[in-house]
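Worked example

This section walks through a single chain of length 82. The input is the sequence exactly as stored; nothing has been trimmed or padded.
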Amino acid sequence: AKHARAKNAVITITTTPDMLTLSVSDDGIGFNPKTRDAAHRHWGLDTMRERALGIGAGLQIESAPGQGTRVVVRLEKGKGRT
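Given that input, the structure is written out below as tokens.
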């Protein structure tokens, strides 16, 4: 809420026999996730990526200015560390 200025957020957890997926999306201001210069460093995204990798999960970030953000974490069952 602080950075995105979102009015709504949706958290979805889905599971299949092979995969656990967590998705968090919002209707906030969005951003360009490819911006990596020092003035626009995304420390929160870096931290999320490190945590996902730490348990063997993948992290996908979808966002664009003015279009909100969606963060998806996928963990293959039996492959991750808990």
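What to look for: The two ends are 28 Å apart (CA to CA).
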